[in-house]
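Usage

Read records sequentially. Each one opens with the input sequence:
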Amino acid sequence: MNHVDLAFTPALEQTRLIRTKEVSPLELVQLYLERIQRFNSQLGSYFAVAADMALADAKAKTEQLAQMEEGSALPPFFGVPISIKDLCSVQGLPCTYGTPVLKDNIAAYDDGVVTRIKGAGFVILGKTATSELGSLPYTEPPGFPPARNPWNLDYTPGGSSGGAAAAVAAGLCPIAQGSDGGGSLRGPAFCCGVVAIKPTRGRISWAPTGDRQSGIAMNGPLARTVADAAALLDVMSGYITGDPYWLPNPEIPFLEAARQAPTQLRIAFSTAIPPLGEAAEICQQSVRETVQLLAGMGHIVESGCPDFTSLVEPFKTIWQAGVGASGIPVAALSPMNQWIAQQSGSAGEYLQAVNQMQVVSRQIVTFFETFDVLVLPVYMHSTIRIGEWADLPSEETLQKIISWIAPCPPFNATGLPAIALPTGFDENGLPVGVQLVGRPAAEATLIAVAAQLEAAKPWSNQRPALFATES
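and closes with the structure output:
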């Protein structure tokens, strides 16, 4: 296997290659570090590269493997490289939250999700780029190079997990951790042509810190295949002492769900998002083609969608409050985030918004008493160019953001699980896709359906040409 093929090999296959000693953890880490050194200046997918830490960990794991007897038990992803989004603390590495005033901030602890990732045997390559405070759907924070889309460097990879999605799509890591507070996993997956899972609220702990903005944000995986994403979700999930809410462990591992065909499901779909109307034609086409595949698989498919109109204002209030509560001096933020912070209301207004969001969310979740899955666009139109909205007034930028990402925030508000899948390309050669939304705690159903779609229309062999050549 040549180096390019190995770089784009799914993480689960890499675990097999390590166990059979066809490749070592050190060889894999060296391969990705070489690719990061070669390509990251163009792509901007990593804020910080943990080369020394990763090499030391990979060497230790390679030596451990050499001394083990064949068939010995190993953690599930022993020796496989991974990236961590720079909103997440990794002890000894920078944690900037995408703001220059924290460039020298070195984390003193691991977030709970990082502890689980390390415990699964992963080797951390570095910290991936995020929008400032994770608040925007494009990754262009001041003081950092913009993250770029590996399919066309003039375009954004999305945000706020833009660096993570770009790194996976470009073969600068096989799998990545990200987070989603309003589409920040699903949007970058859509822009970059990879798979992302936003889990059900309570599936993954926020330990040791508090929950984010009344439960609208969740950690989750980005990967090239459904099985890889499912397996990383298994690793990341679970209660940690003191969590304010949590879910019981699933009946079967999520990876096992990716290997089981779903029963006949009742599936709703829509190409329009109330109150904004129809998505762009290319996004409608992705939904229609996906629904056609699902109907051909024997599922019951019909048009339908909840009304999200009453969610817009309370969600906006909660999202804006997150910027204002960041603890970063407002004067140190970008003009857009300064403006957002200035829109934050009182504590009473925030709590009223939380209450309204929860009431409307109950009505939306009721829709899933009739349907098992809802198929929607991820975003309302294709990927935007780097800096496309940079010169607009902040209020106009906000309206453009709302009109672009509209299909995503309702499921942060409701806490429902969702998975984003690539389906093809637009006229500019940029990926497009769909999202599948499920019932509460029904990630296994979504994963099974997504794997069924992936088998019918494989996409993980697609590689951005610029990053698919030997050096």
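Summary fields computed downstream for this record:
- The chain has 16 helices and 13 strands.
- The longest helix spans residues 347-366.
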